[in-house]
Amino acid sequence: MTTTFTVPLEPSGPGGGSPAPDTAAPAISWQGVRTIAVLELRQRIRSTRWRVALAVWFALVGLVSVLIGGAFASLGGDPKWAFGLVLMFVLGLGLVVAPTLASTAINGDRNAGTLAILQVTLLSPADIAVGKLLAGWAAALAFLAVSLPFLIWSALLGGTTVGGFSLSLTVLALMLGVVCAIGLGFSALTARTAGSSVLTYIAVASLTVLTPILFVLTFPAVTTTEQVVVYGATQEPTAGDDSYECTNFTAEREVSHTERTWWLLAINPFVILADTGAQPGLDPEDSGPFEAIRAATNEMRNGPPEVVQECWWESQAPPTFDDGAPIWPWGLGANLLLGAAGLAVAIRRLKVPYRTLPGGTRVA
């Protein structure tokens, strides 16, 4: 069965010239976006590789989930770690798959000679770009939907709240959309599909791997020797001698002002996801990976403490955990801006007529 779509052609003015001003296409229309998205999705659904990819994804996520759940059950570990690790694995796998869903959407059609057919219709550049983005994002969400049974199972195993589970899933879906938008932008910028795919993977690697590396490398730049208040003893206690008492005194210490560079961690997708799923007020050492990542990031955001603690041998009151303001809205907002920039580049590059074209580019 063949499905056909009616795409409005560009009307010509008197004598076959340029279109009349009153029939100009709008900047974006729901009908145009829907037409492009449905066309893209139908092509994916008919592909055998698409079904195989979903089956392999389901098997891989299921295997990892069972292994993680079995390991914690046999070792007697905290089940909260199960949901955190499975969700992190799904995010990591999604960041590997998502670039392939949109990074060839524009230059692939241009090389095949089918993009120009869409550009001469009343479909606006925004219709084409947004439609392709929604199709790629929907394909990425299909992979996420396949993972839902294992995510729900691990969430129930770890006692995750409904609100925390829903928020984590929403943020994960938005991050996949951001990657698709970045890939779409590179697809419009480069003439070759291999180039756009590589650039998208580099962008994803920069957000996930390069940001913590840069954060560590900036430590010498933000570390200085300052006069600080220290809580400790002027002399080290000897074995069997408890006559030393801890007091506050002023001394020179190396201080790292990580409050200046903590934003490098805040834009990391894994830190964003951990901050959404962390339960406030829990001891990071006795909780899951989300709480540990959130506590470490908050410590970096707060910078050096007002009083440097050096009296480790003295018994102290149980520590309190101040979670502070959520980090994920800032990190997610920065990533959404990157995705919006990718979409804006794609819309701009789809405008016709072209001013310049890369050498060897096929128009139609």
TrEMBL record:
Residues 1-24 are annotated as: Disordered. Coiled coil: none annotated. The keyword Membrane applies. Keywords: Membrane, Transmembrane, Transmembrane helix. This is ABC-2 family transporter protein. The chain crosses the membrane at residues 52-75, 81-102, 133-156, 162-186, 198-222, 327-347. The lineage of its organism: Bacteria, Bacillati, Actinomycetota, Actinomycetes, Micrococcales.
